[in-house]
Specification:
The complex is a heterodimer. By secondary structure, chain A is mainly alpha-helical. Chain A has 12 helices and 5 strands. Chain B is mostly helical. Classes of the chains: A mainly alpha, B mainly alpha.
Chain lengths: 309, 253
């Protein structure tokens, strides 16, 4: 599959990145993969690590099929290979009908993977390398320009005003969660709008990348600030014939806090008090004193000095 | 008799109602059908003659009393266009009535308006909402009751529909009418992490937001509002035990 020494030869990495639904990936630089230090620990996570690595780098890789082809002097299509596989199996003593086990008959070539397995390993390995690459300098730059071109889509939230999204994984362990999209403006994660991304592993982007990108390119945070200041808090929430719904009603606003930003002086001071922990005991005392009836007077006295305990 | 060429593939063998044709157009999935009686009751149309011209003709077209083909050819396009606007504006009023609400409830249950893209909302169904009640100002948005936020429709076909065809009051009315579908809100939030460490600024903001939520919870409980794992309340494992930023993704019920 990968090594085809003709003029229309496409490197494996490019091929992979051009696959349908793989447009979140950037091509990882060859030097990055060739540096063994960057691959530390991956060999235990990926089956047929060496072969997978060679596949990615477009080296010649021997697969179980190739080996059988040599033996039976057949080249090519998997159906015919499978048939011959079965016959060789039957001729030799083993009656196992699993094609994957074919190679185990030949003791010398015991560890050869079949093509499907190898392709899967190569994708897994590439994904894991990709997660590391995009937090390196060249990878970040490559992803940043993808971000700039809005290749990961825009935030579906109306108040984020089309903020560009960043792919993120909710875990660094492969095979657990698919890729999610992080919006730096509302600081929330979303499911990709197209179903083609729903089988992309989140670990191929990792948990670190989104935060690092935002911190490495302060321009992103500037864009967010502009968007946040564009809307005022009154735009949020449901209205019935122009009237807001009271928060004591079950259908009243209960999630305003989720997207709130400190705007008034009091709120900013309160925000600063949240530097290291939530000053809960402060509200306890405040709750007893102030008779709450509307939202106006519940953000009142924060001047009891309790800055950082 | 009904050979409406303006709709792509209508078989002209049998009569198609204007409303059915309208609802069949791609992109009109958000609309429900309006009873003829509601449209014919002029009281329900008060004020709409300011938005569209030739109101009586348009009503006749929508209710199939007049075939649009019988109109002078040069007016047909304009009439059809205005009939759709009128239908939208009547729709905004109709979905606030109890029959309309029930029809929209069916559509809500079927997920006709799509699902919330926010990960922590776990595909909660959305409702259409307008940001204005005047037409031609803003396109339709989608409201998620779980995170109480507005979203842009996913498909470009839906993002060109006028928000006034649903109105600003619809979701609020919907939840007044069907309090049983008010969701239990999730308290989960997301903090970006670098190498496992939370980014301080975002973490701090989240702590402040959590403080706002705790204040809200206190206000509510003080007024005797039950909020733990009830409709309109929050998902809680043990009440009053959420001062730390626990964000176990799996720990929802």
């Amino acid at each position: 599959m990968p090594s085809d020494p003709e003029e229309d030869y496409i490197p494996w990495i490019q091929q992979f990145c051009e696959l349908f639904g793989h447009d979140y990936f950037v091509p990882v630089a060859q030097e990055f993969i060739e540096d063994d230090f960057n691959l530390t620990g991956l060999s235990s996570q990926v089956p047929y690590y060496r072969e997978a690595l060679y596949t990615i780098l477009d080296y010649q890789v021997e697969t179980a099929e190739d080996h059988n082809d040599d033996q039976t002097l057949l080249n090519g299509r998997s159906t015919s290979t499978n048939n011959t596989n079965n016959t060789t199996n039957n001729n030799s003593n083993s009656n196992s009908n699993n094609n994957n086990n074919n190679s185990s008959n030949k003791s010398a070539k015991a560890e050869l993977p079949n093509k499907a397995l190898l392709a899967h390993s190569a994708e897994l390995l590439y994904g894991l390398i990709h997660a590391r690459y995009i937090i390196s300098k060249p990878g970040l730059t490559a992803m940043a320009s993808k971000f700039e071109r809005n290749e990961f889509g825009s935030c579906p939230r109306y108040f984020c005003d089309g903020m560009h999204l960043i792919p993120v994984g909710s875990t660094d362990i492969p095979g657990q969660e698919t890729v999610r999209l992080y919006c730096p403006c509302c600081n929330d994660i979303y499911i990709p709008s197209s179903s083609r991304y729903l089988n992309i592993d989140g670990a191929f982007f990792g948990t670190t990348f989104s935060g690092l990108l935002v911190k490495m390119f302060p321009e992103i945070e500037n864009q967010c600030r502009i968007r946040i200041n564009k809307f005022n808090q009154n735009d949020f929430g449901l209205k019935l014939f122009g009237f807001k719904i009271n928060e004591l009603s079950a259908s009243g606003p209960r999630m305003k806090w989720l997207k709130m930003h400190p705007k008034t002086e009091d709120e900013k001071e309160e925000y600063n008090n949240c530097e290291f922990s939530i000053p809960v005991q402060d509200i306890e005392s405040e709750g007893i004193e102030s008779e709450m009836d509307d939202e106006g007077d519940d953000i009142d006295d924060d001047d009891k000095t309790m800055a950082s305990e | 008799m009904a050979n409406e060429e303006y709709v792509t593939d209508s078989s002209s063998d049998f009569t198609e109602y204007w409303i059915d044709l309208f609802l069949g157009i791609k992109g009109n999935e958000y609309f429900c059908d309006i009873d003829d009686e509601y449209i014919r009751d002029r009281f329900n149309l008060t004020g709409l003659n300011q938005e569209v011209s030739k109101l009586p003709t348009l009503i006749d077209i929508i209710t199939d009393l007049v075939d649009i083909e019988s109109q002078p050819e040069e007016h047909r396009d304009a009439l059809e266009h205005n009939a759709r606007i009128l239908y939208g504006l009547i729709h905004a009023r109709y979905i606030l009535t109890s029959r309309g609400l029930n029809k929209m409830f069916e559509k809500y249950r079927n997920g006709d308006f799509g699902y919330c893209p926010r990960v922590h909302c776990q595909l909660h169904p959305l409702l259409p909402i307008g940001l204005n009640d005047q037409p031609r100002l803003n396109s339709v948005k989608l409201y998620c009751a779980k995170c109480e936020d507005f979203f842009n429709p996913k498909s470009g076909r839906h993002s060109v529909i006028d928000g006034a065809y649903f109105g600003t009051s619809f979701p609020a009315m919907f939840f007044q009418n069907f309090p049983q579908v008010i969701p239990i809100h999730s308290k989960e939030t997301y903090v970006p992490k670098v190498f496992g460490f939370k980014l301080h600024e975002y973490s701090k903001l989240n702590r402040w937001r959590e403080l706002q939520r705790i204040k809200l919870e206190k206000r509510l409980t003080k007024n005797g509002v039950q909020i733990s794992n009830v409709v309109g309340g929050f998902i809680m494992e043990a009440p009053e035990e959420q001062s730390t930023q626990e964000q176990d993704v799996q720990s929802q019920l």
